[in-house]
Design goal:
- The protein is of the alpha+beta class and 237 residues long.
- The protein folds into 2 domains: 95 residues, no CATH class; 129 residues, Alpha-Beta Plaits (2-Layer Sandwich).
- 58% of the residues lie in helices and 16% in strands.
- A 4-stranded antiparallel β-sheet has the order 2-3-1-4.
- Strand 2 and strand 3 form a beta hairpin.
- Helix 1 packs across helix 8 and helix 2 runs antiparallel to helix 8.
- The protein starts with a helix and ends with a helix.
């Protein structure tokens, strides 16, 4: 019975709910911030160290320590790629006017064992392609400079996956923006409908009169109730 009462309250003012939903929908298309198109480039490098020349006929665990040294170098190289000095070297090779700070802020590095993954996000696809090529060139041709600072001159960096450029898709927040607005509008509309019904002192049902303690002398049925009673009388033999 309560569910029917709740539905009658909502059904009494559907225009209010629909108006709020339409208003929120209109505000989304008019005032939603325009997200600029951005692109991402991803590339992978393998980092290794040249084995030392043997000086005798004894076992030196050289391969094990070579792999271990490469992993330590990769940890440092991941931070070097995100540094301002590295961004300056990349910006010097790019033919377009690109600030080094923008390159530094758009570069991210990840590492797994001896694999370095570099990712860049940029607003222009053509510029991103040039910056990615410059980044690869800096790592391959100027790696000795950075590894000298890391106390070794035998490091080797090889490109295993060239820059792959793709458009960045919409974030989860952007995809949920419109559904959340519509749900919020629906909830606010239903809440206002119940508030207006609570403030409305119009008598509509028998229970409204009984709650006031007034005697009920007669009750006029609704049109639907009259038609239903008329059909029952006609169907009765």
């Amino acid at each position: 019975m309560e569910l029917r009462l709740y539905w009658s309250i909502i059904n009494r003012r559907p225009w209010l709910i629909l108006a709020l939903v339409a208003l929120f929908l209109l505000s989304y298309f008019l005032f939603a911030p325009k997200v600029p198109t951005s692109y991402t480039a991803s590339m992978r490098f393998v980092v290794g160290v040249k084995p030392e020349a043997g000086s005798g006929n004894y076992y030196t665990y050289d391969r094990y320590y070579t792999w271990l040294t490469a992993e330590y170098l990769l940890d440092d190289l991941a931070e070097v790629v995100k540094s301002r000095a590295f961004a300056n070297d990349v910006a010097a090779l790019v033919e377009i006017n690109v600030p080094a700070g923008a390159i530094q802020g758009s570069t991210a590095a990840g590492k797994l064992h001896r694999i370095l993954t570099v990712t860049m996000t940029w607003g222009n696809q053509e510029e991103l392609a040039r910056i990615s090529e410059a980044l690869v060139q800096v790592l391959r041709e100027h790696s000795a400079t950075y590894f000298t600072q890391l106390s070794t001159d035998s490091a080797v960096i090889s490109l295993i996956d060239p820059p792959s450029i793709g458009q960045v898709g919409a974030s989860l927040r952007q995809r949920l923006d419109l559904p959340l607005r519509l749900i919020l509008a629906l909830v606010v509309g239903i809440a206002l409908a119940f508030l207006l019904d609570y403030l409305d002192d119009t008598i509509r049902h028998r229970a409204d009169v009984e709650s006031l303690g007034l005697p009920i002398l007669a009750e006029i049925p609704t049109r639907r109730g009259v038609l239903a009673g008329f059909r029952r009388r006609r169907s009765t033999p």
